[in-house]
Amino acid sequence: MDQITPIISISTSFLQRRCPDDGYAMMAKARELGYKYVELGHSLPVTLIDGIVKAVGDGVVKICSLHNFCPVPVYALGPTPNLFSPSTKNAGESSQWQRYTRNTVELAGQLGARAVVAHSGALSQLFFNPGRKLGKYLDGAPISQFQPTPQFQKDVEKFRAKTAERAMAKDYKFLAKNLEEISDFCVERGLYIGIENREGRTELPLDWTFKELFNEIGAIACVKAWHDVGHSKIKELEHLYQQQRLIEDTLEYIGGWHIHDCDADAHDHIGLGDGCIDFRALRKYFDPQKHIFTLELSGKVTGAKAADSLKFFEDLLS
């Protein structure tokens, strides 16, 4: 059997600071660093798209995925992944989420991408804020200095139970409805929506309900999971959920990964090898035949480190 060449891309989250006004130059910079694939991120203005399209047409790089919403709606500024929520009960916001997600999907189809990575909103709250008590434990000193107590563990269990109940009863129903509305549009263009795990404690999907959510939405044709290893590491550092447990909960649904390191104080999007993620322990979950791997590095990472991170990950998969 021929060896599969894995799809390893660099996100424009790293590239945009270096080439803020020239989409073609941005793609050329990715290739200069050794990357053959790029993920278009959620902060790209429409003015950069023509240059990116030309670079793809010229064979500079290929586009494997886009991050919703891309390009940024013309009336918005900066990164917009949470501009509209698919888990809202508001019909107007749902309509806008569908509209701009279709725009992203349309561009993804034109560029030959396979996936659109999407956020899912946050737990609906009014007077209900289950994360407040945990913040008293976790939002003071550096997380590396925090030592969980038996009372903290009890409060975590209560937090997980309360948030799971609300998400399953309310928010996930609206999320499923919006995904169903765009499913045919995605399938016709040969791509899927990758539902990303998040770092916020009440952002959706909740890590401890991801499996239950996908038992409900996994049959929707356009839906897969997208695992961000930095985000799951942050939850592990906060003693909220274990990284490998989340992966094992969702492995059958995973279509792609955001790859970056995270240090012991929960600073993520750093170069591979500069943090505390044990990538060799995660290697058994990576499937180059099925998965897309995007190095989602901060723009603060050096070019040399971005190139080294690619080599690190290529060696890991080989």
By secondary-structure content and strand pairing, the structural class works out as alpha/beta
The biggest sheet, with number of strands, parallel, antiparallel or mixed sense and barrel status, is: 8 strands, parallel, barrel
- End-to-end Cα distance, whole Å, is 15 Å
The total number of structural domains is: 1
Total of DSSP H or I helical runs spanning 4+ residues: 11
- What share of residues is helical? 40-55%
Tell how many strands the DSSP assignment holds: 10
Ranges with pLDDT <50 over ≥5 residues? none
CATH fold-type name: TIM Barrel
What do we call the CATH homologous superfamily? Divalent-metal-dependent TIM barrel enzymes
What general form does the structure show? globular
Strand order, sheet with most strands:
1-2-3-4-5-6-7-10
SS strand fraction: 5-15%
The residue-averaged pLDDT reads 96
What's the SSE pattern? EHHEHEHEHHEHEHHEEEHEH
Cα-atom radius of gyration:
19 Å
CATH class: Alpha Beta
In CATH terms, what is the architecture? Alpha-Beta Barrel
